[in-house]
């Protein structure tokens, strides 16, 4: 179990992401070691960007992951349970843990082979978010509005921080971590994340942190050779958050396929979309998959990115109360296959986040899709390990600034 990796000394404290250090100490007995996929294999110094560019802050989200671990990022802290209040929103606030449980039942993964997500710190979040916006989240009524759970308005903010925002910060950290893993290994999946309605200074639609924007900005700032990204957003809703963030950034190409008649209907944000596919309510598999196939190929041929961020929302599922489309479970599995096939055929690293999905059965569908990708060898341990050992990939990430 990755025993070649040195354990870390961990300073006691409430926030693991803030307290983990890169100090390598003497060998500890196995019973005292943290799980392998929580250990840092090494920490390399950041690049000196010169006086004209500020040096990126030191973060615990970029670290070397043992090759024995799958590039699948998750933490039990993703799941939101708070006196039943999570049931007041149609979102299944425990779906992420259910996905992992299904994958474990199928013997694809085990706890010690999953990359443990770390909570994004305030300094991490400030890479994109304004301090003014982060301060707003210290007001419970703001969080109640963003998450669309009105009773949060009446709760002390320290409860809201711990029970609602910390899980979302941990998922955000997971997306940032998975961005580097995708470059290292060729692919990565954050079982959470995909908060595509949040921009640098505004949240909404259950999205409090702009994890997609953060993952891309971290890569641009810290990984040599990553200068272009393509967002393929296939959630049922328009991804207005990242669209607003990258409105005038020619390094980021956005393809968005969404139901034209539902939230958010953000006309200004649509100006950032390079390839816009607006669907009618009730769109079914045949039409949907044909459009996805055609436009994914077209988008990647036009953009030729260094990384793909794939927002794989399952709210396109037939019967979803918010998505308004009519895609079957098999259609969702095929959709993900199309995107990964296009990425693998071009040897472009791909990061997948799971985004929206408001039915209890979506967790099973996400797990089935990941299993299908594995069965087709579009993702597998051997592929991931070869990616980590590939000289070109290694050259890219050897310059990563921690």
From TrEMBL:
<keyword id="KW-0678">Repressor</keyword>
<keyword id="KW-0378">Hydrolase</keyword>
<protein>
    <recommendedName>
        <fullName>Histone deacetylase 11</fullName>
        <ecNumber>3.5.1.98</ecNumber>
    </recommendedName>
</protein>
<dbReference type="Pfam" id="PF00850">
    <property type="entry name" value="Hist_deacetyl"/>
</dbReference>
<dbReference type="GO" id="GO:0140297">
    <property type="term" value="F:DNA-binding transcription factor binding"/>
</dbReference>
<comment type="similarity">
    <text>Belongs to the histone deacetylase family.</text>
</comment>
<dbReference type="InterPro" id="IPR000286">
    <property type="entry name" value="HDACs"/>
</dbReference>
<keyword id="KW-0156">Chromatin regulator</keyword>
<keyword id="KW-0804">Transcription</keyword>
<dbReference type="GO" id="GO:0141221">
    <property type="term" value="F:histone deacetylase activity, hydrolytic mechanism"/>
</dbReference>
<keyword id="KW-0539">Nucleus</keyword>
<keyword id="KW-0805">Transcription regulation</keyword>
<dbReference type="InterPro" id="IPR037138">
    <property type="entry name" value="His_deacetylse_dom_sf"/>
</dbReference>
<dbReference type="InterPro" id="IPR023801">
    <property type="entry name" value="His_deacetylse_dom"/>
</dbReference>
<comment type="function">
    <text>Responsible for the deacetylation of lysine residues on the N-terminal part of the core histones (H2A, H2B, H3 and H4). Histone deacetylation gives a tag for epigenetic repression and plays an important role in transcriptional regulation, cell cycle progression and developmental events. Histone deacetylases act via the formation of large multiprotein complexes.</text>
</comment>
<dbReference type="InterPro" id="IPR044150">
    <property type="entry name" value="HDAC_classIV"/>
</dbReference>
<comment type="subunit">
    <text>Interacts with HDAC6.</text>
</comment>
<dbReference type="InterPro" id="IPR023696">
    <property type="entry name" value="Ureohydrolase_dom_sf"/>
</dbReference>
<feature type="domain" description="Histone deacetylase">
    <location>
        <begin position="89"/>
        <end position="370"/>
    </location>
</feature>
<dbReference type="GO" id="GO:0000118">
    <property type="term" value="C:histone deacetylase complex"/>
</dbReference>
<dbReference type="GO" id="GO:0040029">
    <property type="term" value="P:epigenetic regulation of gene expression"/>
</dbReference>
């Amino acid at each position: 179990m990755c025993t070649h990796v040195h354990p870390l000394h961990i300073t006691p404290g409430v926030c693991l992401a803030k307290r983990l250090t890169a100090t390598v100490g003497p060998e500890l007995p196995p019973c005292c070691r943290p799980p392998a996929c929580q250990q840092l294999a090494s920490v390399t110094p950041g690049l000196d960007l010169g006086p004209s560019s500020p040096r990126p802050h030191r973060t615990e989200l970029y670290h070397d992951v043992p090759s024995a671990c799958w590039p699948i990022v998750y933490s039990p802290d993703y799941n939101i349970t708070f006196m039943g209040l999570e049931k007041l929103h149609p979102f299944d606030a425990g779906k992420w843990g259910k996905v992992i449980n299904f994958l474990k039942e199928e013997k694809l993964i085990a706890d010690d082979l999953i990359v443990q997500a770390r909570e994004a710190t305030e300094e991490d979040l400030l890479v994109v978010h304004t301090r003014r916006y982060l301060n707003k989240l210290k007001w419970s009524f703001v969080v109640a509005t963003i998450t669309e759970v009105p009773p949060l308005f009446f709760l002390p903010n320290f409860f809201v921080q711990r029970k609602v925002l910390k899980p979302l910060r941990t998922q955000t950290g997971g997306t940032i971590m998975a961005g580097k893993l995708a470059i290292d290994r060729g692919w990565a999946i954050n079982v959470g994340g995909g908060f595509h309605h949040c921009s640098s200074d505004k949240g909404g639609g259950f999205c409090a942190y702009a994890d997609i924007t953060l993952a891309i900005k971290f890569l641009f700032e810290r990984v040599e050779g990553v200068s272009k990204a393509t967002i393929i957003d296939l959630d049922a809703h328009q991804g207005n958050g990242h669209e607003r963030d990258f409105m005038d950034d020619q390094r980021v190409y956005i393809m968005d396929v969404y139901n034209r008649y539902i939230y958010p209907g953000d006309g200004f944000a649509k100006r950032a979309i390079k390839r816009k596919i607006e669907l009618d309510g009730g769109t079914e598999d045949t039409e949907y998959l044909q459009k996805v196939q055609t436009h994914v190929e077209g988008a990647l041929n036009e953009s030729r990115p260094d990384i793909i961020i794939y927002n794989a929302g399952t709210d396109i599922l037939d019967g979803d109360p918010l998505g308004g489309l009519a895609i079957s479970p098999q259609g969702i599995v095929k959709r993900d296959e199309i995107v990964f096939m296009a990425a693998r055929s071009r040897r472009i690293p791909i990061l997948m986040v799971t985004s929206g999905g408001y039915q209890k059965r979506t967790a099973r569908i996400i797990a089935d899709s990941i299993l299908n990708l594995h069965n087709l060898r579009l993702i597998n341990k051997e592929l991931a390990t070869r990616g980590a050992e590939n000289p070109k990939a290694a050259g890219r990430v050897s310059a990563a600034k921690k």
